[in-house]
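Hi team, as promised in this morning's meeting, here are the two structures we talked about. I've kept the exact order from the run log so nobody has to guess. The first one is mostly here for context; it's the second one we should focus on when we meet again. Sequence first, then the predicted structure tokens.
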Amino acid sequence: MSCGEPHETDCAEVLDHLYEFLDREMPDSDCTKFEVHFEECSPCLEKYGLEQAVKKLVKRCCGQDDVPADLRSKVMGRIDLIRSGQAVPEHEVSAAGADLPGVAKE
């Protein structure tokens, strides 16, 4: 997605790190770069607005539910593996999904 115009911060970089921006999990200097990009790029601003609305909706609908500690630790473990560049074995992913309420075991 791009507006076709050159930007100091590339659209792909913005979209790849959109959730980090939404969650304020990036340095202030990067947040500033993204804010400038959104001022210049309406397709990225639209995507940001959509993801922000989804995040608010999920929080409103699911924000009251407590996450089981074991599920949280499994998810955080997967995130750590992905961030470190390690592959997450497929069987572990499907096995973890089977622990989720409403997800049928295969």
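And here is the second protein, the one for discussion:
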Amino acid sequence: MSVAGARALSRGKPRLVVIGNGMAGMRTVEELLQLAPDLYDIAVFGAEPYGNYNRILLSQLLSGEKGADEIMLNTKAWYAEHGIALHAGDPVVAIDRRRKRVRSRHGVELPYDRLLIATGSQPIMLPLPGKELPGVIGFRGIGDVECMLAAARAHRRAVVIGGGLLGIEAANGLSRQGMQVTLIHRGSVLLNQQIDADAAGLLGRNLRARGLALRLDAETVALYGGERVEGVALADGERIDADLVVMAVGVQPDTALARSAGLHCERGIVVDDTLQTYDPGVYAVGECVQHRQATFGLVAPVWEQARVCASHLARFGHRRYRSTQTATKLKVTGIDLYSAGDFLGGAGTEDLVLRDPRCGVYKRLVLKDNRVIGAVLYGDVQDGGWYFELIRNATDITPFRSRLLFGKRYCQALDERQTRAVA
């Protein structure tokens, strides 16, 4: 047993072990410290050799807009200040639920009274010939960014596979580092999970203007090379030379450890409304979990999970987690894009659309029964948060429908004038 484990036993406090030193697990710990700062002896195990950092800002680390110290949320000194034993670079490899113990890769064994699993997700690596070649990586952590930056210093050409948020951010960052970048997407619409075709067209035009080559409706079938990756082959026979290939086609919940411990998993680790697994002593939060058939990849729901889970760990068991609407914003400097809700619409819906190609502005609001149910904004996103509130609150927009596309300020001005007229 480690010194930290022995110290926890001698104090007689219940022991909380956290598996995963990422944003979800540590946000839960922060919430717990606010509610019950002295309740547990806490130990945290993380696979990466750092403190806790903001994974959302990895694209800005890649582009050179931020340094590694600027994306840190909790430095190693923070853990010491709060009496938390941090085992950085030493992931847990086994959970013994019967004995309530964990074992790390380096052989550290600790007992627990409560266990919090926050193993996050793993990048999906396409099962293509050549995927094991050096120079083929995912985009998930600081280590991946360091590999990309090293490649940018030594090589010229990069291919990014995947036209979603991560793919576009990776492609833009590598381009800013001086690489010739080709972005390959199997669909005809970039960000097809977040925006509609019109906004995607404006986005594609912007990316091409930045020097990126786009291959849409393109299927990658193989990677080729000798000692290192040298390019990708497409289904139509085209071959694109590349010294670096980044796969950004999505992520999947990291459930391997939980499964090996016998916890119930489907796509993710199955949790109830308190973020408790089928084992009452084990909780799970973040991208590794599945709640009511849903899995998660955005920050807002994970923060709410952290609040609920911390409440129950602190023995204030009054909160329940419910999935809610989420919004998406692209994190690429100079590209303003925002979407929320049901932006595609369907039967019984209608669209309000504003297009200004000259200024590169596009807005589309989807309405149903005089309520906003979805929004796509490109070029002017300052009212994104307000539209999201309208969606979430199911606000009746009848009084200001004619001004809705012009934003909150114009709608409020109309409301104030009507109020003064009545008075």
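Starting points for discussion:
The radius of gyration is 24 Å.
The domain at 3-122+251-313 is CATH 3.50.50.60 (FAD/NAD(P)-binding domain).
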